Amino acid sequence: MKISMALAGLLFVFYVLMHMYGNLKLLFGQKAFDDYAHHLRTLGEPILPYSGFLWLFRLLLITALLVHVGFALHLWSKANRARSSRYVVKKAVAATVSSKMMRWGGIALLLFLVFHLIHFTILKPNFNSGETVVEGSPYSLVVAAFKLWWVVAIYLLAMIALGMHLHHGVWSAAQTLGLTQTAKSRATAKALGVLVALVVAVGFAIPPLAILFKIVGN
Amino acid sequence: MNLTLKIWRQAGPQAKGSMETYQVTDISEDMSFLEMLDVLNEDLTERGEEPVAFDSDCREGICGMCGLMISGHAHGPEVTTTCQLHMRSFRDGETITIEPWRADAFPVIKDLVVDRSSFDRIIQAGGFISANTGAAPEAHSVPVPKPLADRAFESAACIGCGACVAACPNASGMLFMGAKITHLGSLPQGQPERWARVQNMVATHDAEGFGGCTNIGECSAACPKEIPLDVISTLNSDLRKSRSQRH
Question: How far apart are CA B247 and CA B237, in angstroms?
């Protein structure tokens, strides 16, 4: 059960790294970003229909999300049942902030995911009345949104939450899969957790900040 | 030393407990924590009150019988058992909270005494090897590589006190179980039952109402025998392999 949770989590790590790579195309201008977005829909054609690959991948992600969240909630309720009377005084010695934030941070990420999908995939509302969004150009939608400081703030907060989730999650997945049976491999897994968290959080933060500070998208 | 103690008092398994405040005076800093409680109990007995029930046996740090949550730390602020904790680790005038291990798999019997027979049932499910009794075999007849012997020895240091469960935010018994799995699974004598052992112990652990591990690391930090977290990874690895290996 926890193995499936770890594997689903690692799939998300792979996915967010790909997603981050795609986002960074934004720095190379409208054509690079829009072409990339369009290419994702024609990937696998003509064997797959238009958007076919994308939908297959989305199906995989949705399944993985259900597994990951479902088992996380199961573990959470099991932990609550395992200690129904609480300590009056309990101090943490070894727990990192990231590890303590896995559950509420995970819920925050889930809420962010809903917002993010509505924002850029489902309804695509334009929050910025001063900008026009061109139909079929995700670049224009993204640029319009991230010219607003509060949209950038929401996304940056979400990336801090994602970074913290990955910081503990990557090491925890390695431990659950039985890959950390020595002190050295444990240190490596923890370092990898820090690295992945930093790469993902910083990588995702660059495009919105670049737009906000008018480095790209003028 | 003069201290204020806030102690969990609970008359019986079904009774509702509460924290009570006591004062102890003229405590020597050379006393162990349990000796300090002995002083309190003598005082309570003289006053005709019910003494505080707590577990202890060897008082040498090797039996695993004692175990108290002391101001939020399992076995107190030092890396040792409660019986080997000395009053010099505390300040004069300090207020100390003393609670039992809290986990539904360790129900309170009275005051600070908890029932840890769930650990015994996990051991019964697989924490053993089958060997013929009688004349002991020649010690050198079964070669054990030194790194494996060291790892088994390190894991075998577990005394089953339950501090890992007490400190775990999920009240999980994975460090205890991981120590047994690593101890027996590292040695040639533990191989015949290796895959059945991990499956049966984990099934019993879950049925006893322990929580699941989320790799926080509080267990290892609280362990008086400093069992490392990698025994949990070995447990996870053995559990994963056991599906295809068990015959």
Answer: 17
Same domain? B86 vs B121 = no
Q: What is the ipTM of this complex?
A: 0.89
pLDDT given for residue A1 in this prediction? 80
Rounded to two decimals, the pTM is 0.93
Contact B37, B111 (CB under 8 A): no
Q: What's the domain range around B233?
A: 116-130+144-245
**Residue ranges of domains in chain A:** 2-212
What pLDDT digit, counting tens, does each position of B67-117 carry?
999 999 999 999 999 999 999 999 999 999 999 999 999 999 999 999 999
Residue B197 has pLDDT above 80, yes or no: yes
Q: What is the pLDDT of residues A6-33, one digit of tens each?
A: 999 999 999 999 999 999 999 999 999 9
CB contact under 8 A, B212 and A79: yes
Question: Which residues of chain B have a CB within 8 Å of the CB of A79?
Answer: 169-172, 211-212, 214
State how far the Cα of B172 lies from the Cα of B176, in Å rounded to an integer.
9
C-alpha distances out from residue B56 to A164, B8, B81, B111, Å: 41, 17, 10, 14
* A83, A178, A183: residue with CB nearest B103: A83
Say if the Cβ atoms of A89 and B228 lie within 8 Å.
no
Q: Using a CB-CB distance cutoff of 8 angstroms, which residues of chain B are in contact with residue A181?
A: 230, 233-234, 237
The predicted pLDDT at position B247 comes to: 64
The angle that helices B174-185 and B146-156 make with each other, rounded to 10 degrees, is 150
Q: Are A177 and A6 in contact (CB under 8 A)?
A: yes
* CATH code matching the domain that covers A2-212, chosen among 3.40.50.1580, 3.40.50.300, 1.20.1300.10, 3.40.50.2300: 1.20.1300.10
B80 and B124 in a common domain: no
Q: Look at B72 and A91 and tell me if their CB atoms are within 8 Å.
A: yes
Residue B26 in any domain: the answer is yes
